[in-house]
Amino acid sequence: MLTKTITIKNPSGLHARPATAFVQKASAYPCNVNLIKGSKKINGKSIMGLMTLAAKQGEELILEVDGPEEEVALDELTKVLEAEHL
Amino acid sequence: MERTGIAAAPGIAIGRAIVKKEENMEIVRRSLEPNQISLEVERFKDCVQQAILELAELKEITEKKVGEEEAKIFEAQQLFLQDPEFVGAIENMIEAEHINAEAATQSVRDQFLAIFESMENEYMRERSADLRDVSQRILRHLLSITQNETAVVDGPQILVVHDLTPSDTAKLDLSITRGFATDIGGRTSHSAIMARTMGIPAVVGLSNVTEEVSDGDLIIVDGSTGNIHIRPEPVVLQEYEDKLRDFQLRQETLAKLIHQSTMTRDGRHVELAANIGNPSDAESAISHGAEAIGLFRTEFLYMGRDDFPSEEEQFASYKSVLETMGNKPVIIRTLDIGGDKELPYLNLPEELNPFLGYRAIRLCLDQTELFKTQLRALLRSSAYGNLRIMYPMIATLDELRKANQVLSEVKQELVDKNISFNHEVQVGIMIEVPAAALVADQLAKHVDFFSIGTNDLIQYTMAADRMNPQVSYLYDPFNPSLLRLIQMVIIAAHREGKWVGMCGEMAGEKLAIPILLGLGLDEFSMGASSILQARHLIKQLDSQKMAKIAEHVLTLSSGQEIKDYIQQEVMR
Fold it and tell me: Which residues form the domain of B117?
């Protein structure tokens, strides 16, 4: 299992387009993907999970990947979360 | 029969009604025998697959008919149907509770709806409409409901629905659907936004219009006023047919003016600009014929968050507007916050009279770091277009001097760091406090321009709260006292060779434009959708003649008298 702390840079937070992009990417990997904000942990392959997480710009999230291809997944998903414009 | 709802998209539509009532799906909860469960899960999965295919088709249709941006909603809905937490939860429920797929779908949907709707966020509340839409789609498949075939009606149609879901919108046939009316919804609901994007007249929020109308009824939708007429009398019908023809002619005339400059009949050029509140509004300003941005409110950058926006973030926003506008001028107003527009992270004490309190430039001159960050971002962005900086709420020369002092300090910092910016960037102030109007001659020496902010200037001059309906009779831009102040400001600025604009709602008012033109106003900034009408009007006016009209207006003694006079002398 790998984890990484990431700060959301997109001005509109992890809503709409960035959330869609993240879920689409996450679903392409065989490993489990989770996002943790405070005491809340959600399935990173779930659009509804991401939406209810409602992560805003400047907030810190922990990205957790576990299983096959976890290293690539960590890198690629970090890019989506840290992108300023999507 | 006449009904009034919310005007959602302007224009008039006349046609025969197609009524679509809310689908009433009876969901019965059934217990399953253990040997039926895996079959039920398979049945559910099949229905989800069919729904996903339908959405792909809808996405394609919408891309062609409306636009790529609008079609994205179906992509999002597809993701809902592939969501392990949603679809998975329904499957688990079928297996764990031994119940039918319909009941499980409804139950999981309701759980998520409760979460979405409890969130303090308009975006999430809108997404609950998508969740309802996709759930409905699965349920229709589970219950094998084929969607009601629409009634056959000849000629133009008006769609009458409980609510227009994204799927309904995609299926609209724009060659025959001329407008629509709904039971529920507001100006910002999905249906209203789509109607405006597609340019079809719509009235929403009519509460029970689907009950009052039958298929084939003649309907008039007036999306500008929010009225609909059901089975209208011949006189009413005639009236609207005339209006519709006029409206179409007018739209054609206005569309020709988009790329023209704003020249009076006697050849005086004035600038027509747009007020915007978001960088993304700039494109729409251009498509509505704006020659400039006369007011870019920067508050959006500061609102709805937990901390101040960084210099980089501000820079990116300012730069994007400047680049979109090319060499057209863009006036960006520095932070106008405090008082009624509060920022939780500023920790401002509650005030008794927020409009007379610690706000805008008063706050910025006190919290200079906040001000400097914004000015740095502004100056840096000035290298990318035609920026003009404007301070709000200036009341005294001393305040203006202090603000300019801070600006020159920031300029020096940038020079020291070798960061490029436009050294000649124009700097102006809003004239919205009567005290500033009264010393406009002194202020004019220290600025490049004035922009009269009538919304506040009226309420401060008349001592009438613009939100209080009991004193709304005083809140009138045509009041002689206000017009005299405006005249003073324009004369004072022109004496110093400076230009004067106006960025309040008055600048786009049909009856005010002739007076303002006559008083010598150089720039009119308004909501983008008013620009072409203003251009159409100004092109027919003679500035010399309007100067005489304005001179006479200033001798009249009430707002009503002034409006009647303009109506009679200019608008005939």
Answer: 34-142
